[in-house]
Amino acid sequence: MTIAEKLEKAHEQGINGLYGSEDAYTLFERSFLVFIVLDGNDVIGAARVISEGIETALFVDLKAKGDLKDVTETEIKTGLIKAAEKHLSGRRVMVYGRREDLDLYEKLGYGRCKNAWTYFRKGFDEKDFLPSGFRYENEFFSQAQHGDTDKAVVSAKDRMCRELILGRVTYKNDISGTTYEAVNDILTRAFWGHPHDVEKTKAAFSNSRFTAAAFDGERLIGVARAVADTGNKDDKRIDGKYATILNVAVDPEYQGLSVGKNLVLRLSEIIPAETIVLNTHPGAVGFYNRIREYRRNLYVFEKHIHEGEKREMPPEMRIGMFTPKGFRFPSEYVQ
After folding, report:
1. φ, ψ (nearest 5 deg) of residue 333
2. Does domain 127-296 have CATH number 1.10.150.20?
3. Per-residue confidence (pLDDT) for residue 140, from 0 to 100
């Protein structure tokens, strides 16, 4: 068994056969990283990564043939995940997984995300999602203690003032008309003053397939971006399979006016992908639960591949981000 990390035309038939799709090889061609497990010339497993190459990565389409003579399906999948991690040091890795691989991801140190939502154009399977508006127990406590920030901001604004502001807000399907310094400033102020590096911001947004921005007159008040497997950067209408929306950020002075929601929906409408994944922080649960086009996903996983010394996430942060290891919903227990 060997793992190839470079796509070759000789792999086309094997990859298409593994996934049962004539489009599978094309999607691999559009991916940031690819990993193919070979038994001689036979493709027995594969996976791929979608990324802007800077901060985040979305690991998708983990697939292996059933247990073979000399290797198990779990061993093939484990090899693929570990091969990908070697290339993703220092990045936040999200995995769009499946129920059958829940134990595998937990064993490899991935947390099951509480805060992942998915927008579907087709292929929706109810068993992979939580009911609309679902909250975990700790989120009810958080809401009662701190209130719903979004609603509090809206209720504090005079109705006439609100309508005046909304009438001025315009949206664009790119970030032309502004600067990367302004984008970086929005990211910094929207995320509790946590400083963002302007060069990384520039690289992340310029390497993303899709971007969107909101303006009040000439003032930038919101941004968002997305990476996807939808063809090259200049040919955005080639349909893909997966996309992920990132860096949804709104100027604090304009939060509570549906600017973030409009940016998310705007990107969702222009991204020609079957499945769009959106993973956020615990404080945004109420916000995303109100976007009815998205559903809370049970099988998105995350792991930060640290550079050098491993750093543990504080327990109070982890409980807001991930379900406890070994946690299962009633439907996930073997009947």
Report:
1. -75, 145
2. no
3. 77
CA–CA dist 309, 231 (Å, integer): 37
Distance CA(249)–CA(259), nearest Å, equals 9
Superfamily of structural domain 2-112: Gcn5-related N-acetyltransferase (GNAT) (3.40.630.30)
Determine contact, residues 198/180, Cβ cutoff 8 Å: yes
Q: How many CB atoms lie within 10 A of CB 92?
A: 15
Whole-number Å distance between alpha carbons of 81 and 59: 9
pLDDT tens-digit readout, 126-180? 889 999 889 888 787 654 444 444 444 444 446 667 777 778 899 999 999 899 9
Separation between Cα atoms, residue 135 and residue 144, nearest integer Å: 12
pLDDT in tens, 264-278: 999 999 999 999 999
> Residues 262, 214: contact at Cβ < 8 Å?
yes
Residue pair 17/41 in contact (Cβ under 8 Å)? The answer is no
Place of tokens 């802007």: 52
CB-based burial label for 272 (10 Å; 0-12, 13-18, 19+): middle
3's enclosing H/E stretch is strand 2-4
Helix (H, G, I), strand (E, B) or coil at 26: helix
Burial class (CB in 10 A: 0-12, 13-18, 19+), 145: exposed
Establish whether domains 2-112 and 127-296 are of one fold: yes
Identity of the residue numbered 263: L
Tokens of 45: 């497993």
Cα torsion through 108, 125, 280, 164, rounded to 10: 170
Q: HSE, CB side, 13 Å, CA atoms: give it for residue 182.
A: 14
* Antiparallel, parallel or unpaired: β 42-51 and 33-39: antiparallel
| Domain boundaries along the sequence of the chain | 2-112, 127-296
Question: pLDDT: is 313 or 277 the higher one?
Answer: 277
Q: Which residue has tokens 């958080």?
A: 142
